[in-house]
Amino acid sequence: MVSPAATTRSGSGTGGWLLDEDGESHDVASDDVNDYLREISGIDITAKDFRTWAGTVLAYRALRALSPGTDDRSSRKKVVEAVRFTSDRLGNTPAVARRSYVHPAILEAYMDGSIGGALLEAAEDQADPPSVSDEREERRVVALLQKRVADERKTRRKKAG
Length: 161
Prior knowledge:
Layout: E1 9-10, E2 15-19, E3 25-29, H1 30-41, H2 47-64, H3 72-90, H4 94-101, H5 104-111, H6 116-125, H7 135-160
Antiparallel strand pairs: 1-2, 2-3
Helix pairs in contact: 2-3, 3-4
């Protein structure tokens, strides 16, 4: 396989081609990329996992730049705006981005106000979503997702027994 550090990608969809250091082109399919990711990471991971993480962080970032909605309707409009921002960055439709690349817990947390205070504080500092993520932002997304999963488990346990 061609080293990705010395390549340029062209094409779209499930395939494309890469140029190596000598300018030779090589056909590359999504399976090639996924095999490479598994080989270097040692875990079962695909490019879609990275894209889903990117979509989730982008949605969080977009919501962070918006002030909390004043009611359910305005909050839903802001979620639509955040999903549109995310889909534009991913090159998908909003429906595809929301269904396939944004973790629903991010949107649910915004809608139920559980991240409203942090969002409002961040929104006061910026008018637009930041252009790049930082480690703290990604850690906040991980913490939010972990908390939502833990809360959901507790709720299921209470209902079961």
